[in-house]
């Protein structure tokens, strides 16, 4: 996990340097402090998908390129076989598996997300990013919080929401939850 975060940080530094941007400029794009952005580039802290999404959109790169390091090459179709999507575990509790990493110039980013249960007293990590998001629960149950409202989703349930609203989720019943997340 830590190695993957460091690799993402290195890709961010490379992108910023290639575009001749300062950390201050990228931080402003992401609506975060320069100090927070510098911690991200250090590879010592987790990097939220929302920050990566903002950087990808703002600077015209693929989100999965920042996350996984590979440039998409396909433009007609791309197949991801069962359990074969490029994966990254940003933090121990979350695993993102890209379902379209090889397709260039995607209009959306589909991921299979696995969230492991955490202690009840541990706070929910919330983020926000431009666009919209669709989540479909494949297995398990989860609580999703959107702008302070808590909603319970069970297997087969889905939700579509404005991802600019602060949102976060957690697995319920002491079991992991797997859901399809499509970020637009």
Task: Give a verbal description of the structure.
- Residues 12-66 form the HTH cro/C1-type domain.
- It comes from Parabacteroides absconsus.
- Keywords: DNA-binding.
- The chain is of the alpha+beta class and 184 residues long.
- It folds into 2 domains: 2-68, lambda repressor-like DNA-binding domains (434 Repressor (Amino-terminal Domain), Orthogonal Bundle); 87-183, Sandwich (Jelly Rolls), CATH 2.60.120.
- The protein has helices at residues 2-18, 23-30, 34-42, 49-59, 63-68, and strands at 87-91, 94-98, 109-115, 132-139, 142-146, 149-153, 158-162, 167-171, 177-183.
- The chain has a 6-stranded antiparallel β-sheet. The protein has a 3-stranded antiparallel β-sheet with strand order 6-5-8, with no helix packed on it.
- Strand 1 and strand 2 (94-98) form a beta hairpin.
- Helix 2 packs across helix 3 (34-42).
- It is globular.
Short description:
Residues 12-66 form the HTH cro/C1-type domain. This protein is α+β, with helices and mostly antiparallel strands and 184 residues long. It has helices at residues 2-18, 23-30, 34-42, 49-59, 63-68, and strands at 87-91, 94-98, 109-115, 132-139, 142-146, 149-153, 158-162, 167-171, 177-183.
CATH topology of the largest domain: Jelly Rolls
Let me know the largest β-sheet.
6 strands, antiparallel
CATH homology-level superfamily of the largest domain: Jelly Rolls
Which outline best applies?
globular
Helix content: 25-40%
Succession of helices and strands:
HHHHHEEEEEEEEE
Q: Strand order, biggest sheet?
A: 1-2-3-9-4-7
Pfam family, one: Cupin_2
Keywords: DNA-binding
Protein name: XRE family transcriptional regulator
Organism: Parabacteroides absconsus
């Amino acid at each position: 996990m830590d190695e993957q975060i460091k690799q993402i940080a290195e890709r961010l530094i490379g992108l910023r340097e290639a575009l001749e941007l300062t950390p201050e400029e990228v931080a402003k794009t992401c609506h975060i402090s320069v100090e927070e952005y510098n911690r991200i580039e250090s590879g010592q802290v987790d990097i939220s998908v929302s920050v990566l999404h903002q950087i990808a959109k703002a600077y015209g790169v693929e989100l999965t390129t920042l996350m996984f390091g590979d440039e998409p090459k396909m433009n007609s179709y791309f197949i991801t076989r069962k359990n074969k999507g490029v994966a990254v575990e940003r933090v121990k509790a979350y695993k993102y598996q890209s379902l379209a990493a090889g397709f260039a110039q995607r209009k959306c980013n589909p991921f299979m997300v696995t969230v492991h249960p955490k202690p009840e007293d541990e706070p929910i990590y919330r983020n926000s990013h431009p666009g919209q998001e669709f989540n479909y629960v494949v297995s398990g149950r989860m609580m999703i919080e959107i702008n302070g409202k808590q909603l319970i989703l069970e297997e087969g349930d889905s939700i579509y929401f404005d991802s600019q609203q602060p949102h976060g989720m957690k697995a319920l019943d002491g079991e992991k939850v797997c859901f399809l997340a499509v970020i637009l």
